[in-house]
Amino acid sequence: MVTSRRDFLKQAGWTVLGGGLMASFVELPASKAHASSGDRTHLYAYVVDTHKCIGCGKCGEACRAENKVPDEFYRTWIERYTIYADGHVDVDSPHGGEKGATPIKKAHIDRSFFVPKLCNHCKEPNCVQVCPVGATYVSRQGVVLVDEKHCVGCGYCIQACPYGARFINPKTHVADKCTWCYHRVLKGLKPACVTVCPVGARQFGKVNDPNDPVGKLIKEARLQVLKPEMGNQPMVFYNGLDKEVR
Amino acid sequence: MLHEIVTQGFLFPNEIEVLWSLMIVLYPYITGLVAGAFIVSSLYHVFGKEELKPVAKFSLVAAFAFLMFACTPLLFHLGHPERAFNIMFTPHFYSAMSGFGYIYSFYLIVVLLEIWFVFRPDIIARAKSSTGIMKALYWVLALGSMDDSEEALHIDHKITLVLAAIGIPSACTLHGYVGFLFGSLKSNPWWSTPLMPVIFLMSAIVSGIAILIVSYYIVMVIKKQPVDNKCLKSMYDFLWGFFIIDLTLELLNELASIYAQTQSYSIIAQLTEHRLQFSYEILQLGICSAIPLVVLGFVSLKTMSDTLRNRLGLICSALILIQVLAMRWNVVVGGQLFSKSLRGLTSYMPTFLGREGILVAVILFTMPFVVMYVFNLILPLFENKGDEAQG
Questions:
Q1: Do residue B187 and residue A162 have CB atoms under 8 angstroms apart?
Q2: For A175-233, what is each residue's pLDDT tens digit?
Q3: Which of B75, B187, B331, B337 to mutate to test the interface with A (most CBs of A within 10 A)?
Q4: Which residues form the domain of A144?
Q5: Minimal CA–CA distance to A194: which of A41, A52, A14?
Q6: Cβ separation of A154 and B77 shorter than 8 Å?
Q7: Quick one: A6 and A117 in the same domain?
Q8: Torsion angles phi and psi, residue B52, rounded to 5
Q9: Do the Cβ atoms of A162 and B151 come within 8 Å?
Q10: Does A107 touch chain B (CB under 8 A)?
Q11: pLDDT tens across B153-193, in order?
Q12: What is the ipTM of this complex?
């Protein structure tokens, strides 16, 4: 009888070991399905010129219409910064700035400006790193996307994004975010927000194309990114980023 | 009634609503109880702390019962719980979270095996003494192996020792991992500290010991049996010791944050002052820490009557259970109450009803005790005093 139990344990041990090995092979589909860091190029970049933005909110409206973004959630938004003479900093973004800016408090103001925000489509994205099932991934063109048929809706990516760019879509119950209008980009079009911007504050183009205004800007202009200390290497660049902007 | 969100300052527009709810507070709390209860059982099985024998089986089954329900809060939280197994079928190993399914499963197997070996003599004895369906049940539970010879039991004991020894690092990994989930997120200054996994682990151990003390006491009162004072005294000692380490780490974390005064300090100070004043300053670092720290010191070091010692020990254990729950709340919810713009605060209050409400949390927390009750109907969690006398 002792032997039978020993045999039983042996078999159980092999089963557990075998199961573990099999499970480790099952890992492949998630990483194979999406481009790994080795075979992707960061083809596109996005440039925001804060000097040009007038805070009209047309970009936000266009994004909502184009991508059917649910109410009270935002794939893009516009922040208004007001720095008063006494050093006080006021930041607001009512309705994500989609309805335009509201009147400002009457006081001595040193400077005031608008900063459009969106997913930074980072080269080293936190959100992709932390997704436990590989549902968030970087496309071959370098666009950070969510496979909504695979996402479990745990929200870890939302916690990991330093920019507040993600949310759980209340209709699909999965992570949602700006895709740079990937469906348009694949057809050679620009993202909706870029297309509707009346002042050219939002630009989108190819990084390594010297004939592309965006490629030229990235090469020649002195641009900044948001929260560089996070090490994510954002692909959304800003011209005229104030020290108060985070 | 829905709680009205109160914001202050500027938040990114997607940050207004807190995402990780009461369920995510409950998840590390229950997981922590598993680790703590298992450590107690190992103190007897591996480290030979004979005085803990009265709770050795109970603590092992408690670890199992809590483990059974450790995942359930997550299922109530997930946007797509039906896809939960994606975490094991298509794991993304760069994610700290992807290890959960494997760590959890491995630990569950270790605990189940250990329970089987520890309870095997009881299963065989009951299989022999019962009739009908119950006999069949015990035979199935014995997996058909009815050998209870001295030699077989000796082998069982050796295997138990090995399993318990494997179980200790597994328990530490399981809970250290939960802390790592938070500690590794560089985007959140309230979470991002290498101390987080250690703090989670230590608080897990103290909460596990505390829940065993409280449960053991209550069960003995219900069963109208005298408590084993030597066993309780030993648990108070361990509770005090681990709590000193736990609290030291928590205070160290707080001190480091105050001393470093990094960019995020201003919003963190506002968070603790305005949003977490009660749960953090008063509960976690205040009364629920100071009282157990001092009183358990007296309980451990001073000579006093058993009744007084048990009363004080029980109160301290209950306070520590609240302290650890408050700590989980402060970490999980607190980390979402301030904006990553470091310019504003939001608020959160769980609803009573609903998928992630208080009622569901209470039911989920009660379920492990139901499991322990049912287990006790089939196999004895406690040595019967009468049996011992006969033995």
A1: yes
A2: 999 999 999 999 999 999 999 999 999 999 999 998 999 999 999 999 999 999 999 99
A3: B187
A4: 36-79+113-246
A5: A52
A6: yes
A7: no
A8: -90, 5
A9: no
A10: no
A11: 999 999 999 999 999 999 999 889 999 999 999 999 999 99
A12: 0.93
